[in-house]
Amino acid sequence: QVQLVQSGGGLVEPGGSLRLSCTASDVVLDNWSMAWFRQAPEKGREIVAAISRTGSATYYADSVKGRFAISRDNDKSTLYLQMNSLKPEDTAVYYCALDRTHYSPTYYSTAEQSYDYWGQGTQVTVSA
Fold first, then answer.
1. Which of 34, 37, 45 is nearest to 78 (CA)?
2. I need a surface site. Which of 12, 29, 88, 113 has the fewest CB within 10 A?
3. Mean pLDDT over all residues of the chain?
4. What's the pLDDT score for residue 37?
Protein backbone atom coordinates (compact mmCIF):
# COMPACT_ATOMS: atom_id res chain seq x y z
CA GLN A 1 0.00 0.00 0.00
CA VAL A 2 1.55 3.28 -1.13
CA GLN A 3 1.63 5.95 1.56
CA LEU A 4 2.78 9.56 1.35
CA VAL A 5 3.48 11.21 4.70
CA GLN A 6 4.00 14.96 4.85
CA SER A 7 5.74 17.23 7.34
CA GLY A 8 7.09 20.76 7.62
CA GLY A 9 4.06 23.03 7.58
CA GLY A 10 3.29 25.75 10.06
CA LEU A 11 2.84 29.46 10.67
CA VAL A 12 5.30 31.92 9.19
CA GLU A 13 5.44 35.68 8.72
CA PRO A 14 5.34 37.22 5.25
CA GLY A 15 8.77 37.04 3.67
CA GLY A 16 9.69 33.95 5.64
CA SER A 17 10.53 30.44 4.52
CA LEU A 18 9.34 26.90 5.07
CA ARG A 19 10.33 23.53 3.69
CA LEU A 20 7.76 20.81 3.18
CA SER A 21 8.69 17.15 3.00
CA CYS A 22 6.82 14.16 1.65
CA THR A 23 8.14 10.68 2.32
CA ALA A 24 6.84 7.69 0.39
CA SER A 25 6.61 4.07 1.43
CA ASP A 26 5.92 0.88 -0.53
CA VAL A 27 6.97 2.46 -3.81
CA VAL A 28 10.14 2.83 -5.88
CA LEU A 29 10.09 6.60 -5.89
CA ASP A 30 12.19 7.23 -9.00
CA ASN A 31 9.66 5.40 -11.18
CA TRP A 32 7.07 8.13 -10.82
CA SER A 33 6.60 11.83 -11.31
CA MET A 34 5.33 13.83 -8.34
CA ALA A 35 3.83 17.20 -7.56
CA TRP A 36 2.72 19.64 -4.91
CA PHE A 37 -0.81 21.00 -4.94
CA ARG A 38 -2.49 23.43 -2.57
CA GLN A 39 -6.01 24.30 -1.59
CA ALA A 40 -6.94 27.56 0.07
CA PRO A 41 -10.18 27.96 2.03
CA GLU A 42 -13.18 28.10 -0.30
CA LYS A 43 -10.91 27.45 -3.28
CA GLY A 44 -10.27 24.47 -5.51
CA ARG A 45 -7.07 22.52 -5.52
CA GLU A 46 -4.36 24.08 -7.71
CA ILE A 47 -0.99 22.94 -8.98
CA VAL A 48 2.02 24.50 -7.29
CA ALA A 49 4.95 22.58 -8.74
CA ALA A 50 5.68 19.28 -10.46
CA ILE A 51 8.78 17.21 -11.02
CA SER A 52 9.64 14.31 -13.30
CA ARG A 53 10.74 11.00 -11.83
CA THR A 54 14.43 11.80 -12.21
CA GLY A 55 14.13 15.44 -11.19
CA SER A 56 15.40 16.58 -14.58
CA ALA A 57 12.20 18.43 -15.53
CA THR A 58 10.15 20.73 -13.33
CA TYR A 59 7.13 22.99 -13.51
CA TYR A 60 6.10 25.94 -11.37
CA ALA A 61 2.89 27.88 -11.25
CA ASP A 62 3.41 31.51 -12.22
CA SER A 63 2.36 32.59 -8.74
CA VAL A 64 5.30 30.79 -7.10
CA LYS A 65 7.96 30.91 -9.82
CA GLY A 66 11.22 32.25 -8.47
CA ARG A 67 10.14 31.74 -4.85
CA PHE A 68 9.51 28.00 -4.53
CA ALA A 69 11.74 25.08 -5.46
CA ILE A 70 10.64 21.48 -5.87
CA SER A 71 13.21 18.73 -5.49
CA ARG A 72 13.44 15.06 -4.74
CA ASP A 73 15.85 12.63 -3.15
CA ASN A 74 14.92 9.26 -4.52
CA ASP A 75 17.44 7.47 -2.29
CA LYS A 76 15.52 8.81 0.71
CA SER A 77 12.13 8.34 -0.96
CA THR A 78 11.40 11.98 -0.21
CA LEU A 79 9.96 14.93 -2.11
CA TYR A 80 10.59 18.49 -0.97
CA LEU A 81 9.12 21.92 -1.51
CA GLN A 82 11.31 24.82 -0.43
CA MET A 83 9.16 27.93 -0.03
CA ASN A 84 10.85 31.31 0.21
CA SER A 85 9.55 34.88 0.27
CA LEU A 86 6.18 33.63 1.44
CA LYS A 87 3.10 35.76 0.91
CA PRO A 88 -0.30 35.69 2.64
CA GLU A 89 -1.82 34.36 -0.56
CA ASP A 90 0.33 31.24 -0.17
CA THR A 91 -1.80 30.26 2.81
CA ALA A 92 -3.35 26.89 2.05
CA VAL A 93 -3.30 23.20 2.79
CA TYR A 94 -0.48 21.71 0.75
CA TYR A 95 -0.62 18.18 -0.63
CA CYS A 96 2.04 16.04 -2.23
CA ALA A 97 0.97 13.63 -4.93
CA LEU A 98 2.37 10.76 -6.97
CA ASP A 99 1.53 9.89 -10.58
CA ARG A 100 1.88 6.23 -11.56
CA THR A 101 0.56 6.60 -15.10
CA HIS A 102 3.66 7.75 -16.98
CA TYR A 103 7.22 6.50 -16.87
CA SER A 104 9.20 8.95 -19.02
CA PRO A 105 12.16 10.42 -17.11
CA THR A 106 11.18 13.91 -18.28
CA TYR A 107 7.41 13.68 -17.90
CA TYR A 108 5.20 15.44 -15.39
CA SER A 109 1.57 16.43 -15.25
CA THR A 110 -0.03 19.59 -13.90
CA ALA A 111 -3.51 18.05 -13.81
CA GLU A 112 -4.98 16.95 -10.50
CA GLN A 113 -6.63 13.92 -12.10
CA SER A 114 -3.26 12.56 -13.24
CA TYR A 115 -2.23 11.79 -9.67
CA ASP A 116 -3.03 8.50 -8.02
CA TYR A 117 -1.70 8.82 -4.47
CA TRP A 118 -1.90 11.78 -2.12
CA GLY A 119 -0.36 12.86 1.14
CA GLN A 120 -2.50 13.77 4.12
CA GLY A 121 -2.02 17.51 3.63
CA THR A 122 -0.23 20.04 5.77
CA GLN A 123 -1.31 23.56 6.69
CA VAL A 124 0.84 26.52 5.69
CA THR A 125 -0.28 29.84 7.12
CA VAL A 126 1.46 33.09 6.17
CA SER A 127 0.40 35.94 8.44
CA ALA A 128 1.94 38.83 10.31
1. 34
2. 113
3. 94
4. 98
How far apart are alpha carbons 7 and 56 in whole angstroms?
24
3-state SS track over 59-94: EECCCCCCCEEEEEEHHHCEEEEEECCCCHHHCEEE
For residue range 40-56, list pLDDT tens digits in order. 999 999 999 999 998 99
* 63-105 pLDDT, tens digit each: 999 999 999 998 899 999 999 999 999 999 999 999 988 778 8
Sheet containing 3-7, strands listed edge to edge, beginning at the edge strand earlier in sequence: 3-7, 18-25, 78-83, 68-73
**Which run of H or E residues covers position 53?**
none
